[in-house]
């Protein structure tokens, strides 16, 4: 059983926590640290926010404050525990743009096998999608939740709809755009699900 520790602020990771609990196999969330929000822009001494010890196989951060995340990354480095902080900037952590754009990386154990860039298996009967099975998906659960919206559609209809349905279900903030690419995490979530379905159908 892979042991995962979660750090969040004021419930910032609740949607992902629920998804991991519902759709994972062989994973146990053993500790959840919920730090406060509404903190000063600059935290010179983050140590008081990390009084309790933690240990496990993987740490997932939904911390929104960069100083708290940086300190957590240093703690994880000392403990030799991998740290995932999707959508953040932190040199010491694994930082995919979204939880559903995490590649298959060494050292992430069962979590890395089950969560990240989506993978589907699809059955088509009489020109309609009759079954979709998830091999790997988003920790928020969107990969699984959109399936009922695609069953019964033709492959062409499903490919036209899947990105939009994934975006409806994605819990990320739609107002956050990458200034370099001009794309938001919401666009990326839609694109990776569309590519997964297209690959499964091909």
Describe the structure.
It is elongated, with a radius of gyration of 18 Å. Helices cover 33% and strands 20% of the residues. By secondary structure, the protein is of the alpha/beta class. The strands form two sheets. It has a four-stranded parallel sheet, sandwiched between helices. It is built from six helices and six strands; from the N terminus they run βαββαβαββααα. The protein has two domains: 2-95, 3-Layer(aba) Sandwich (Rossmann fold); 119-201, Sufe protein. Chain: A (Alpha-Beta Complex), CATH 3.90.1010. The mean pLDDT is 93.
Give short descriptive properties of this protein.
single chain; Rossmann fold; 33% helix; Sufe protein. Chain: A; 202 residues; 2 domains
The largest pleated sheet is described as: 4 strands, parallel
| Count of DSSP H/I helices | 6
Measured by DSSP, the beta-strand proportion falls in: 15-25%
What's the CATH C level of the largest domain? Answer: Alpha Beta
Unreliable stretches (pLDDT < 50, length at least 5) are: none
Instruction: Tell how many strands the DSSP assignment holds.
Output: 6
State the gist of this model.
The chain is α/β, with parallel strands linked by helices and 202 residues long.
Give a topology summary:
Layout: E1 2-9, H1 14-23, E2 27-35, E3 58-62, H2 66-79, E4 83-84, H3 109-114, E5 119-125, E6 128-136, H4 142-145, H5 155-169, H6 185-201
Parallel strand pairs: 1-2, 1-3, 3-4
Antiparallel strand pairs: 5-6
